[in-house]
Amino acid sequence: MTTPTIEEPHTAEAPKPTKRARRATRIAEAASGGWKVLLFKVIALGIIDAMALYAILVLVQSEQWLIAGIVLAVTAFANWIYFSRGHLPAKYLIPGLIFLFVFQIFAAGYTGYVAFTNYGTGHNSTKDSAINALMLSAQERVPDSPAYQLTIVEQLGELSFLVTDPDGDVRLGGEERPLEPVDNAEMDGGKAVGVPGYNTLSFAQIVADQQRIADMAVPISDDPNDGALRTPDGSVAYAYVSKLVYDEAADTMTDTRTGVVYSDIGTGAFTAPDGTELLPGWQIFVGFDNFVRAFGEESIRGPFFSVLTWTFVFAFLSVFLCFAAGLFLAIVFNDPRMKSKRYYRVIMILPYAFPGFLSALVWAGMMNQEFGFINVVLFGGADIPWLTNEWLAKFSILLVNLWLGFPYMFLICTGALQAIPDELQEAARVDGASAWQVFRNIKLPLLFVAVAPLLIASFAYNFNNFVLIYMLTGGGPRDVSAGVNVGATDILISMVYKVAFVGSTADYGLASAFSIIIFLLVGTISVIAFRRTKALEELV
Predict the structure, then answer these.
(1) CB pairs under 8 A, 24+ apart, for 433-442?
(2) Assigned architecture for domain 31-115
(3) Which residues lie across from 246 on neighbouring strands?
(4) What's the 3-state SS for 68-99?
(5) 165 contacts 171 by C-beta, under 8 angstroms
(6) Could you say which of 133, 199, 220, 273 has the lowest number of CB atoms within 10 Å?
(7) How far is CA 462 from CA 91, 319, 329, 356, 523, in A?
(8) 3-class DSSP assignment, residue 7
(9) How far is CA 416 from CA 248, 419, 447, 530, in A?
(10) Residue 410 to residue 447: CA distance in whole angstroms
């Protein structure tokens, strides 16, 4: 009986790396080593670290501890990644992730936060800042105020008052920092002229920044009722007190001239019994009040739904007209009997080659009611209000958008038509189908398979086509009866812009609420549309 022998398993030789793999390895090794790469890292990260350090100092000075901590942590993590060996994917991903967070995630999150606040004109700071602003706005110089010897000093771009009072005491403070004693000031003839860590401004520098210095008001103490120091010339300061008196215990503001008491009733401003508010107020959380205003107040709800309806009509008609024109031209120039097709195609895409805002400005000039080319030349001096009449302005916008948009649809339809096999069309003709039947039953369904996602993207783009509206009509003509700044041709995005940035008052909270509504509308429509396009996949 023989004993079976156990053979050792045969280990297959590892395949030799390909030329592409060896090249990738060399690139990876070069990216993570070498004195040239190290020098570049040191210089680039040195610049970034310097900027981060400056940002951290500014944030700490303004007591933004959380953001300062985030900047410090991200900077330290980036230095660790780039100065360590390996972690090659992270070295390429970190810049993109930082920009993604700052310009996308943070921007979207902050917009959502603002939508639930009263942030806007008169409500754009904290309560303490509002109290100081109110006290400063009602200040008057104290009669027979003593003169305080003054030196203007600067640190990190912020100006401060270095004050020597009549008793010889030296104190330092800024607009947001009450005066505090200074023990190590540099003296010259009984006047403080410098302090370590600060730069003393020369006479020429004071003259160059005279208006900013004259507008400064440095609190004398933590109690705003003690007043502030102000200077007319940068060399001597005087005491000013406010005619508004703040009672911290009762949380009220009293006007000593009229005797009216203003209280904090939770609306973000001191309010009198008759409802009069003292502005500026402060930013507070208001919950869903902005959304309630958008749908509840008649002066806002009516214009909002009018703008919403026009936005849908504008987006739909823009896509439909541009697609119809582009498809028609694509079919015409795709016909083999058409001569010199390449030259016609170049002419067709010319409107697409020019920047959209420039084309909108040119059209705005051509449609000028008094001097425009269309009225003066084409209509023999007619006085047609293309951009000032509500319905003509809407027609003009659709016409200009057709001019700007049909070349894009022409290009994608041309490519989609050329991708349809000729055998399908020939087989249909052999079966006796007419040209219209071939187009409706074969070309159009196959065309939609390719262009349906692009049509959805075009709808979303035109839903937020701010540039065309703003450059052509500015959203006008204005609806004077509306409770918000809105016009007959405004779409939602241009209305949001006006609510936030145009006019004497800005309501960022309401504008942010409108932005969230736009996001929900576009997102919902896009999701539904993309799901419906799955039915077209059965055609291929």
Answers:
(1) 439/331
(2) Up-down Bundle (1.20)
(3) 253
(4) HHHHHHHHHHHHHHHHCCCCHHHHHHHHHHHH
(5) yes
(6) 273
(7) 37, 8, 21, 13, 14
(8) coil
(9) 72, 5, 6, 19
(10) 12
3-state secondary structure of 235: coil
Provide φ and ψ at 521, rounded to 5°.
-65, -50
Kindly report the average pLDDT of the chain as a whole number.
87
Residues with Cβ within 8 Å of 238's Cβ and at least 6 positions away in sequence, in order, are: 141, 142, 145, 146, 147, 148, 229, 230, 231, 232
Distances (CA, A) of 146 to 119, 141, 175, 240: 40, 11, 20, 11
List residues bridging with 236 in a β-sheet: 149
Whether 218 contacts 239, CB under 8 Å: no
Coil vs helix vs strand at 11: coil
- Sequence-ordered list of residues with C-beta below 8 angstroms from that of 350, at least 6 positions apart, any chain: 407
The Cα–Cα gap between 70 and 429 comes to 68
Residue 324 CB partners (closer than 8 Å, separation 6+) = none
Q: At what angle do helices 508-532 and 492-501 cross, to 10 degrees?
A: 160
Q: Between 270 and 434, name the one with better pLDDT.
A: 270
Architecture of domain 134-278: Beta Barrel (2.40)
- Record the tokens describing residue 281, joined without a space: 């107020």
More confident residue, 35 or 118: 118
Residue 401 has pLDDT above 90, yes or no: yes
Domain definitions of the chain by residue range = 31-115, 134-278, 296-539
pLDDT at 6: 47
Reply yes or no: is the peptide bond before residue 224 cis, omega within 30 of 0. Answer: no
End-to-end CA distance of the chain: 68
Question: Taking Cα atoms as reference points, which of 101, 109, 92 lies closest to residue 73?
Answer: 101
Name the H helices within 375-438: 390-418, 422-430, 435-438
Q: Residue 514's CB: how many other CB atoms inside 10 A?
A: 27
For the stretch 25-69, pLDDT in tens is 666 555 555 667 678 778 888 898 999 999 899 888 877 888 899
> For the segment 169-198, what is each residue's pLDDT rounded down to a tens digit?
999 999 888 999 998 899 998 899 999 999
DSSP state of 266: S
Domain at 296-539, CATH homologous superfamily: MetI-like (1.10.3720.10)
Which 8-state DSSP code applies to residue 118? Answer: -
Longest dimension (CA), the chain: 127
Q: What is the pTM of this model?
A: 0.77
> Which of 508, 121, 116, 119 minimizes the C-alpha distance to 290?
116
Helix (H, G, I), strand (E, B) or coil at 145: coil
Distances (CA, A) of 414 to 111, 436, 452: 41, 18, 14
| Alpha helical stretches, state H, 142-253 | 203-208, 210-214
Q: How far apart are CA 13 and CA 34, in angstroms?
A: 33
Residue 299, token pair as written in the block:
């002066």
Which neighbouring-strand residues pair with 139? Answer: 242
